[in-house]
From TrEMBL:
Source species, domain of life: Bacteria
TM region positions: none
Annotated signal sequence range: 1-28
PROSITE patterns in the cross-refs: RENAL_DIPEPTIDASE_2 (PS51365), TAT (PS51318)
Keywords, ordered alphabetically: Signal
Matches recorded under InterPro entries: Metal_Hydrolase, Pept_M19, TAT_signal
A single BP term in Gene Ontology: proteolysis
Name of protein: Peptidase M19
GO molecular function: metallodipeptidase activity
Organism of this sequence: Duganella guangzhouensis
One Pfam family named in its UniProt record: Peptidase_M19
Length: 381
């Protein structure tokens, strides 16, 4: 059996071979690059993954966003990304932690204003594209910081938060996440939070949610909702992926589904670019081409030292399992990205792979960014 580390060390060569097998010359200029299509990562980052974790999480060290991060992100064509900040899980007061992060990120984005732009509306994404900056959409992946007061939504809206996910993998006061066996739906307090999100023009994100809360919230929301980063349960039967029923309801409400570049694209093995394509195509079949995009749940810079990275991954998986927040598919021998679709060329490689499958340029541009922009604009305006 091939050693996983050996396999990953040869990811670059495998990528070239994969492209060649699809009839795509590795040295060819991506067909969409010269058109400068709008590229929005509905959940992702741009931090330099080669830096120590403590630096990537520390505001005093610029959250791991260094000169390489910015150069790689710009070279990738990325125009905006939804950056997870605030409380997700663990110790500490969720409200205080989230307030502090909002403050720190506002200061950081202002300090890096030559490169970054805080996104408060869809026009800011277009402005970032025109000015060759990168739009930062601030978002939460857990609404636990609402405590018992749904009016806190307004506080975060004023601070620049534009996306709030209702639950992480476990339960909270709004309902159950994808790993909660009771699959509890949207609570009365959860309905109050959804109402406040609508009132304050914040996108309701149903990633990581259990099926029932997803269906309940999609029905309760007066505005289109999103699932920023997920996969399709019909393609890979894992709890982090969404059922066709969930996907269809989100689309019917005018919403958006972002497909991630994560281990949950395949069951029991390392997923590759072909698996991502399969999930995107299934989502298009269920939702229609106007409601599907990407939410990588990853960063842009490529990993330099895979052996060191794999050791860190082992520690991370162990810690997540100990904390009870791990999901099936998270393993120390399966990396949380696609080995043949990583680095500063990943968005254009994806575009080429979709084109090779027969998808039109207009559809590919929708997937890369314009679908998310349209839905976000309908909520933020």
């Amino acid at each position: 059996m091939t050693d996983r580390r050996t396999f990953l060390h040869s990811a670059a060569a495998a990528s070239v071979a994969t492209l060649a097998s699809l009839g795509l010359p590795a040295s060819a200029a991506p067909s969409l690059r010269d058109k400068h299509p709008l590229i929005i990562d509905a959940l992702g980052g741009i931090d330099n993954i080669n830096l120590p974790v403590t630096r990537r999480e520390n505001a005093a060290s610029d959250f791991g966003i260094d000169a390489r991060s910015l150069a790689d992100a710009k070279a990738s064509g990325l125009n905006a990304f939804n950056m997870t900040i605030g409380y997700v899980f663990g110790d500490g007061d969720p409200y205080e932690k989230s307030l502090a992060d909002v403050h720190a990120w506002n200061i950081f984005i202002q300090k890096q204003s030559a490169h970054l732009l805080l996104v408060r509306g869809a026009a800011d994404i277009k402005r970032a594209q025109a000015e060759k900056r990168i739009g930062v959409i601030l978002g939460f992946q857990n609404a636990a910081m609402m405590g018992k007061d749904a009016r806190r939504v307004e506080v975060f809206a004023k601070g620049g938060i534009r996306v709030i996910q209702l639950t992480y993998n476990g339960p909270n006061q709004l309902g159950d996440g994808s790993m909660a066996p009771s699959n509890k739906g949207l609570t009365e307090f959860g309905r109050d939070v959804v109402d406040q999100l609508n009132r304050n023009r914040i996108l309701v994100d149903l990633s990581h949610s259990g099926e029932q809360i997803c269906l309940d919230a999609a029905t309760a929301s007066r505005a289109p909702i999103i699932i920023s980063h997920t996969g399709c349960r019909a393609v890979a039967d894992l709890p982090r992926n969404k059922t066709d029923r969930e996907l269809r309801l989100v689309a019917d409400k005018g919403g958006f589904v972002g497909i991630y570049f994560m281990p949950f694209l395949a069951a029991g093995r390392q997923p590759m670019a072909a698996d991502l394509i399969a999930h995107i195509e299934h989502a298009i079949h269920v939702c229609g081409e106007d409601h599907v995009g990407i939410g990588t749940d990853g960063t842009v810079p490529q990993i330099d030292d895979m052996a060191t990275y794999m050791k860190g991954l082992e520690d991370e998986v162990r810690q997540r399992r100990a904390a009870g927040i791990s999901a099936p598919g998270e393993r120390p021998d399966i990396v949380p990205f696609l080995p043949d679709l990583m680095g500063r060329d990943k968005f254009y490689k994806l575009a080429d792979l979709l084109a090779k499958r027969g998808h039109s340029s207009s559809r590919i541009e929708k997937i890369l960014g314009t679908n998310f922009l349209r839905v976000a604009d309908s909520v933020w305006s």
